[in-house]
Automatic annotation (TrEMBL):
Record-linked PROSITE patterns: RPW8 (PS51153)
Keywords, ordered alphabetically: Signal
InterPro entries linked to this entry: Powdery_mildew-R_dom
Name this polypeptide is given: RPW8 domain-containing protein
Organism lineage string: Eukaryota, Viridiplantae, Streptophyta, Embryophyta, Tracheophyta
Taxonomy, superkingdom: Eukaryota
Signal peptide bounds: 1-24
Positions of the RPW8 domain: 1-103
Key word tRNA processing present: no
């Protein structure tokens, strides 16, 4: 029973990261190229994640075997969430500073 839950946790962690990246790509224009690259990488490993989940169900693998991957996916999702809250006004700051200097 633990391996079924573990497999579900892996898929859920992967899905959280994938959705966070997709959302951030739409909300953060400054990092679109990087986020699109991450999204592409996740697309390419999706089949491997599915295979791991299926093998865990079949082989009743131990939780520690995929726990580090789950932890990394969750860390990535938290980082994407944190970074998507940062306001990037670099150009606006430079413009405001230049406009004040010319007054």
């Amino acid at each position: 029973m633990g391996s079924v839950v573990q497999g579900a946790a892996l898929g859920a962690a992967f899905e959280l990261l994938f959705v966070s990246i997709a959302d951030a790509t739409q909300n953060i224009a400054h990092f679109n190229a990087d986020l699109n690259r991450l999204e592409s990488i996740l697309h390419s490993i999706k089949l491997a994640i599915d295979d791991i989940e299926n093998f865990n169900k079949i082989l009743e693998g131990q939780q520690h075997e995929t726990q580090s991957l789950i932890d990394r996916l969750l860390e990535g999702e938290k980082l994407i969430q944190k970074c998507s809250k940062v306001k990037w006004n670099c150009c606006e700051r430079g413009y405001n500073r230049l406009s004040h200097e010319h007054r």
